[in-house]
Amino acid sequence: ETGVTQTPRHLVMGMTNKKSLKCEQHLGHNAMYWYKQSAKKPLELMFVYSLEERVENNSVPSRFSPECPNSSHLFLHLHTLQPEDSALYLCASSQFLAGTDTQYFGPGTRLTVL
Amino acid sequence: GEDVEQSLFLSVREGDSSVINCTYTDSSSTYLYWYKQEPGAGLQLLTYIFSNMDMKQDQRLTVLLNKKDKHLSLRIADTQTGDSAIYFCAESMGKGNLIFGKGTKLSVKP
Lengths: 114, 110
Prior knowledge:
The complex is a heterodimer of chains A (114) and B (110).
Chain A: E1 4-7, E2 10-13, E3 18-25, E4 31-37, E5 44-50, E6 53-57, E7 64-70, E8 73-79, E9 87-94, E10 104-105, E11 109-113
Parallel strand pairs in A: 2-11
Antiparallel strand pairs in A: 1-3, 3-8, 4-5, 4-9, 5-6, 7-8, 9-10, 9-11
Chain B: E1 5-6, E2 9-13, E3 18-23, E4 31-37, E5 43-50, E6 55-58, E7 61-66, E8 71-76, E9 85-92, E10 98-100, E11 104-109
């Protein structure tokens, strides 16, 4: 148990659906991250939030929309996804954004897009 | 460019030592990390090393860093079946940006 929880753990959706992934951290951290983990590819950093402001968007398509209402919660809103978006989506948090700050990961949401 | 390379598979017998290797490209990285991912789980931080260190030991884990060759290794002594997992090397690019390798799948045979 790392102190970072994600819901749901599994999600199946059609290409026309709208769904949201939720992440919550209980560590008092100030930075939160969304990663995508696809088979046979390195982890891809999608978004970074620091003190509730987005500081990084790694050329992610607009069908992925993050939201950080407070420093403990991070959402990823999904709409009109493609089958190639099927992957494990991992949330992480760290104390601050410095390169020295260790990131703690949640268990992930396994997303399947039909 | 930014690239972290790892071999994809390693198979060892229970009780042997495992050595997982990684090469990275950015010589300005300040921290390098090893994460472990068990099936169906997220990434668990195993250990990290600061770039001005050559070695770090933590119980059964030994990390060696060769900064000249940009080579990082993780040695697991007395490998157990519970160590079977995927091990990721990552380098810190600053501002929370970690670059991960593709992971090495460690299989431990009884």
